Design the sequence.
């Protein structure tokens, strides 16, 4: 680990690397976003720009896929989603290098999580907050990045909570090109996989069961070289869990591609195909309490082969599958270590 000073004047809530790992953005309760670039010669993070982004704590941000340019989305307790675009000709540290594209104000409560969809799905993002509603926005005309449309509004909780921390809500998109548009939404202790039906409506395709506390973080692995999906969660119950997700058809055939006729199981909330039994099969394949305390963050590497987790023990643990496909802790990094 190599720490660097962010210069934020309050708690840092989120960090996000760009696609190439050469820039990192941070957001804070001081209402500011900062972007740092990695200096190739010194290998140090240098401040590129800092600006006031919202009128309340900025708690989540994300970079768009690079084919759409250098764009950051941010959400805040002020109930707003804001989109920012870099002006590469503006001087660094001028406060003018990132300009506001637009503000999206449909939420009725503080927003806690924002994530862009994979680039092959187009320029779209999902936002989730205290009103318990998942909203998906899309720039239907990529040449006009100031115009975004609310394309989906889906309640993920039957009754929104009165008040919760931003860490009780999170979402992630499935990066695979071989599944229909799919994303995972975690709200409190629920983890729900949503897909789109033939009418472009989101439905609950599966649940990730077994969590015994609030879900703090979730990460969907890239499926390079795999026919199945891997999802990791970090939970307040102190466990890192890894789930295997496969697409199932009637008769156990995972790869048939048929038209869908969806119905909702009212008890489980999981959608099923009346005629063909279409659905997602979810299997818990790994569960570990090595952090011996609350797990706050999980993240897969770019190829989906190594999982990192961080918890109350102040350590980062790296997980990798063995030759028997059992996930084992391969390394432990302490915050006190210096490289």
Sequence:
């Amino acid at each position: 680990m190599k720490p660097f000073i962010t210069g934020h004047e309050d708690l840092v809530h989120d960090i996000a690397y760009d696609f190439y790992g050469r820039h990192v953005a941070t957001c804070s309760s001081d209402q500011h976003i900062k972007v740092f670039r990695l200096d190739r010669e010194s290998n140090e993070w240098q401040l590129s720009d800092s600006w006031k982004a919202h009128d309340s704590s900025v708690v989540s941000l994300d970079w768009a896929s690079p084919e759409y340019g250098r764009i950051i989305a941010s959400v805040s307790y002020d109930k707003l989603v804001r989109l920012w675009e870099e002006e590469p000709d503006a001087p660094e540290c001028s406060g003018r290098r990132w300009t506001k594209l637009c503000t999206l104000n449909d939420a009725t409560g503080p927003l806690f999580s924002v994530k862009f969809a994979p680039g092959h799905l187009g320029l779209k993002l999902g936002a989730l907050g205290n009103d318990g509603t998942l909203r998906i926005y899309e720039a239907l005309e990529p040449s006009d990045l100031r115009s975004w449309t609310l394309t989906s509004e889906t309640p993920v909780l039957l009754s929104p909570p009165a008040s919760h921390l931003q860490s009780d809500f999170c979402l992630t998109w499935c990066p695979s090109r071989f599944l229909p548009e799919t994303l995972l939404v975690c709200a409190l202790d629920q983890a729900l996989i949503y897909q789109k039906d033939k009418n472009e409506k989101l439905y609950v395709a599966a649940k990730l069961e077994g969590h015994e506390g609030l879900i703090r973080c979730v990460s969907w692995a890239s499926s390079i070289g795999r026919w199945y999906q891997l999802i990791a969660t970090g939970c307040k119950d102190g466990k890192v869990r890894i789930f295997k997700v496969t697409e199932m058809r009637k008769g156990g055939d995972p790869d048939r591609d048929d038209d869908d006729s969806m119905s909702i199981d009212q008890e489980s909330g999981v959608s099923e195909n009346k005629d063909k039994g279409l659905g997602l099969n979810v299997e818990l394949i790994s569960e570990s309490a090595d952090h011996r305390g609350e797990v706050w963050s999980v993240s897969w590497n770019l190829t989906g082969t190594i999982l990192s987790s961080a918890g109350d023990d102040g350590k980062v643990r790296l997980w990798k599958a063995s030759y028997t496909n059992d996930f084992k802790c391969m390394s432990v990094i302490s915050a006190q270590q210096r490289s």
